[in-house]
Amino acid sequence: MRIALGADHRGHAAAEQTLKRLRQAGHEVDPLSELSGTPCDYPVPAWRVGRAVADGRADRGLLICGTGIGMCIAANKVRGVRAALAHDELTAEIARTHNDANVLCLSADLLGQRLIDQIVDTFLGAQFLDAHGPHGAGRHARRIEMIRAIEDGREPA
């Protein structure tokens, strides 16, 4: 899988470890920010990763900052990005299966590396349930289309 990875100064250590582990697992990982402790503004890596995903240069994006919140807000401003903040495996799985999230945002300050690894693996392994589920075929896909309408400035109903 092609993965765009970005981090700010608070997320750099977790991002470095994640980069190594994902490459060892056979993923093509492109670090789109300087993975160092040098202070930087989180919207820059969020935009870079968001653009890579939206343009099709990456299948998924991973963003790591102190809380994950700022990265998530900034990444979601990129048309075509559905970024989700996850603090556990369940929210990572639902972000993919129900919301077709294509960028995962994580907190370096609140999560240990072991949990980050588990959340990333869950996110990357989950598939969007576009036509499955007990509540009607295509309900999740219909909602993604509504999100696209909002991006286009249209009312989603």
Shape category: globular
With helices defined by DSSP (H or I, 4 residues minimum), what is the helix count? 6
- Structural class designation: alpha/beta
Total tally of structural domains: 2
Strands of the largest sheet, in order across it? 2-1-3-5-4
- Gyration radius, rounded: 15 Å
Distance between the termini: 34 Å
Text of the CATH class of the largest domain? Alpha Beta
CATH structural architecture of the largest domain:
3-Layer(aba) Sandwich
CATH homology superfamily of the largest domain: Sugar-phosphate isomerase, RpiB/LacA/LacB
What percent of residues are in strands? 15-25%
The number of strands is 5
Percent of residues in helices comes to: 40-55%
At the fold tier of CATH, the topology name of the largest domain is Ribose 5-phosphate Isomerase B, Chain: A
What low-confidence regions span 5 or more consecutive residues with pLDDT below 50?
Answer: none
Overall mean pLDDT: 92
Please write the string of helix (H) and strand (E) elements. Answer: EHEHEHEHEHH
Main β-sheet description = 5 strands, parallel
